[in-house]
Write a structure and sequence with these properties.
Length: 218
């Protein structure tokens, strides 16, 4: 379903969010106080306006309240990012997603009611470290401090094993959410489904259990 997004701040992060949403077929309003930055996304936004996003009346005149999501991607200017987020919540925007620069910024954003806080460099750094830690991990998503979802490549040992034979849940306390084979994705694997080597298993669990599964089960 088509949604209405406003992206404020068109640095590297904001402009890539803007372009991707536009390619996905959504309405995107791009906002920046720098005309040059705005021109860079003019072909990838439904509308674009030069505005200071810390100016309450300017935000109201854009009808910002009516957008489904507003993404605040003002990076280095932490004060502006905080002020803008506060104004958006006061105006009554339902979903405000904000890019945070550091822990301090993150904490303040939490306190003033940002609905989702993203830290692209921090999060990507963690994912890359996990790829480096184990070459079998294709992707890594942190759900909380203790729980995560990983994509693991099945080995020869797993070839022709069913999920029930692997006994992932009872032995390791992990859940196989999906099995990818080439471009096919089995999103509700049954216990009798057979794995072949090089399949990619999408597995959710406690970090320690996932480590154990990777070391002993695969
Ligand atoms: P990235 O790492 O994603 O490139 P960044 O951390 O370098 O981002 P900045 O350049 O600090 O991000 O800011 C992103 C954009 O936000 C810039 O294009 C800047 O012009 C815009 N911006 C900063 N302050 C405001 C403001 N008050 N109103 C509107 N846009 C703003």
């Amino acid at each position: 379903m088509k949604k209405q997004f406003a992206v404020i701040g068109l640095g590297r992060f904001g402009s890539s969010v803007c372009k991707e949403l536009y390619h996905l077929g959504h309405d995107v309003l791009a906002i920046d106080n720098d005309e040059v930055k705005l021109n860079g996304v003019s072909d990838y936004a439904t509308h674009h306006v030069i505005t200071n996003a810390t100016d309450e009346s300017a935000l109201k005149s854009l009808g910002i309240r009516n957008f489904d999501y507003v993404i605040v991607a003002i990076g280095d200017h932490i004060q502006s990012s905080i002020l803008c987020t506060m104004l958006l919540k006061e105006i009554g925007v339902k979903k405000v997603w904000v890019k945070a620069q550091n822990d301090y910024h993150h904490k303040v954003l939490e306190k003033i009611g940002a609905d989702r806080i993203v830290r692209p460099e921090h999060d990507m750094g963690i994912r890359v470290a996990h790829h480096l830690d184990s070459e079998r991990i294709i992707d890594y998503i942190e759900l909380s401090e203790d729980y995560s979802i990983v994509e693991l490549v099945a080995t020869e040992k797993n070839n022709k094993q069913t999920l029930i034979e692997m006994d992932v849940r009872a032995k390791f306390g992990c859940t196989v959410l999906a099995i990818k084979r080439g471009s096919d994705v089995n999103i509700s694997p049954s216990p009798m489904d057979e794995i072949v080597s090089e399949d990619i298993l999408v597995v959710m669990g406690h970090k320690n259990d996932l480590k154990r599964f990777e070391a002993e089960g695969m």
